[in-house]
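User: I'm putting together a teaching handout on how multi-component assemblies are represented. Below are the sequence lines for each component of a complex, exactly as they appear in our records. Could you produce the 3D structure of the whole assembly as structure tokens, so the students can see both representations side by side? Please keep the chain order the same as the input.
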Amino acid sequence: MTGALAGRCALITGGASGIGLAVARAFRAEGASLVLLDLDPAAASIAEELGETLAIKGSVTRKADIVAAFDAAEARFGPVDICLANAGVSQNAPTLDVSEEEWERVISINLTGVFLTAQEAGRRMIAQGGGSLLLMASMYGIVAAPERIGYCASKAGVAMMAKALSCEWAREGVRVNALAPGYVRTPFLDDLAQRGRLDLDRLRARTPMGRLIETEEVARMAVFLASDQASAVTGQVMAVDGGWTAYGYL
Ligand code: NAD
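Assistant: Of course. Below is the structure of the complete assembly, with chains in the same order as your input.
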């Protein structure tokens, strides 16, 4: 640890589990203070464990909850320098079976939720002279998978949002990048595998590196993008996927 984020304040949505939690741990280890906005009340005990961390219970689908989280961050730690719009849900069903309600659910969390978070972060970062905004896309925003129409469409939207916002806010000092993880070993993935809905051996075989991605590997990319080490990096969609999106053979 190098103290790369010392003195910074970071807001993470969906920070109570999986990738968001791993990023929270990595940001704290690099010296940032944190605000976790999550629906899951478990965020409160995580905040206690991490120290210098505030947990706000709320949804990224409600602008008022997002504003409340930024206000709480500013009141406790000062301006938010780093924001990771990470909260997201999966979706897995043949397209012809996807109801309008299910489509709206996925889009409202994965796409509108990221937009609302990014808009609030951008507003405040522009006013304070800069910041680093990270949006959680997926390799399925770069390449496609069947029976995940809402997921793929929302993540492609998130990847493009990072590019579009980077153009708009670059001269205001706000860098905007997206993360595009491959299959990351999370409790959610293990659960799907245990219920026979995902074949982990097939996923490993399809990945050039021959293995799943660890949450800490995504977190290290997030630390880099959030830090001054990435001072000229904006508008990028960074795949952390063991080579999945590079591979086009067989
Ligand atoms: P996870 O389910 O472990 O964690 C998601 C967190 O988001 C949870 O704490 C949940 O309570 C929270 N959340 C859900 N809806 C919310 C809402 N409306 N408002 C606030 N918080 C909400 O998931 P994960 O696997 O860590 O995924 C995190 C992000 O990474 C998602 O955007 C996901 O699409 C993306 N991603 C995951 C993988 C993977 O393999 N796990 C791969 C690529 C991208």
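A couple of points students might notice: The first helix runs from residue 18 to 29. Residues 13-14, 16-20, 37-40, 59-61, 86-89, 109, 113, 136, 138, 181, 183-184, 186, 188-189 surround nicotinamide-adenine-dinucleotide (CB under 6 Å).
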